[in-house]
């Protein structure tokens, strides 16, 4: 992996050109670095979210002007110093939210909203991997909807997950017993963000018979009952989370910030799979 320079094309109508300030890293970026997707050919670029300042606007790009601070999402190209993004993907960055926080919101926020919308109205939800990027905001959005959350994490992050509003349970041997002790009634639904067999088995044992068991981990599971969920991009959902962070309703944890030049170190950290909140590139 290396940082390469490329020539900027003319800005298409309906697009804004942005000088990036920060960009969150999602596990999919880190997995690209390993060559997992080599069937897609080279070169491959990275990044699906960003914050930054508008430095040019194309024709028919109404509502935004040069100098505006924005954040948004875009497919696999945002880990770059200058990016061209459709205006419809942008929302304004509130002044009291840092570049690093703003640039790491879009991916996980829209994933969390998709999960809760697809699971639908439930009273209780089991989240495997509640301390990660997606987990942290899913816990808080679920609590906002009045859902009781049981969230798993390593011992190190139990207090953090509890602070987000969940009943925190350590994963590992004895997980099912611990969940049942904390929540004796069958749980309405589960979502797996860890992608482990342990999570699948724990969901099968603790979710009620007609309850939804889902995964976002994108891995094959041992049970046909596990439904995959894929993020749906929706600026209204993104705005909802940004508003909540601006108002102080939602906590946003930054695990670590790496300079763009050290992107490979940042991806390696995400690959370890124990991020607390978000890992971010700074430009
Ligand atoms: N389907 C989609 O559209 C979509 C969208 C976004 C993300 N994803 C996928 O969703 C997954 C989570 O993403 P993320 O951004 O939240 O990742 P992340 O920030 O790297 O967090 C991963 C979390 O998993 C926890 N974890 C590790 N091993 C675990 C285990 N054995 N049991 C339970 N939890 C465990 C870690 O907690 P500890 O540190 O406490 O161990 C960590 O907090 C990734 O596979 C990602 O690719 C899918």
Automatic annotation (TrEMBL):
It comes from the Bacteria. GO terms for molecular function: oxidoreductase activity. Its EC number is 1.-.-.-. Residues 1-281 form the Enoyl reductase (ER) domain. Keywords: Oxidoreductase. InterPro entries: ADH-like_N (IPR013154), ER (IPR020843), GroES-like_sf (IPR011032), NAD(P)-bd_dom_sf (IPR036291), YIM1/Zinc_Alcohol_DH_Fams (IPR050700). This is NADP-dependent oxidoreductase.
């Amino acid at each position: 992996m290396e940082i390469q320079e490329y020539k900027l094309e003319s800005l298409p109508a309906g697009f804004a050109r942005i000088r990036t300030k920060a960009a969150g890293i999602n596990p999919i970026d880190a997995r690209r670095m390993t060559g997992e997707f080599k069937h897609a050919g080279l070169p491959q670029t990275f990044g699906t979210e960003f914050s930054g300042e508008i430095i040019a606007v194309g024709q028919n790009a109404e509502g935004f002007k040069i100098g505006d601070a924005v954040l948004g999402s875009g497919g696999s190209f945002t880990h770059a110093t200058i990016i061209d993004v459709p205006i419809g993907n942008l929302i304004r960055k509130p002044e009291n939210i840092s570049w690093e926080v703003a640039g790491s919101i879009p991916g996980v926020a829209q994933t969390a909203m998709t999960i809760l919308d697809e699971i639908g109205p439930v009273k209780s939800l089991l989240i495997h991997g509640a301390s990660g990027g997606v987990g942290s905001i899913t816990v808080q959005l679920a609590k906002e909807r009045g859902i009781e959350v049981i969230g798993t994490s390593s011992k190190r992050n139990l207090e953090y997950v509890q602070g987000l509003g969940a009943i925190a349970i350590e994963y590992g041997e004895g997980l099912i017993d611990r969940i049942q002790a904390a929540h004796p009634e069958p749980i309405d639904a589960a979502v797996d963000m860890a992608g482990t067999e342990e999570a699948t088995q724990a969901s099968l044992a603790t979710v009620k018979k007609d309850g939804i068991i889902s995964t976002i981990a994108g891995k094959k599971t041992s049970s046909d009952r596990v439904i995959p969920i894929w993020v749906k991009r929706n600026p209204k959902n993104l705005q909802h989370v940004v508003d909540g962070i601006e108002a102080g309703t939602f906590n946003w944890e930054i695990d670590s910030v790496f300079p763009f030049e050290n992107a490979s170190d940042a991806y390696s950290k995400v690959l370890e799979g124990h991020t607390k909140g978000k890992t971010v590139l700074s430009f």
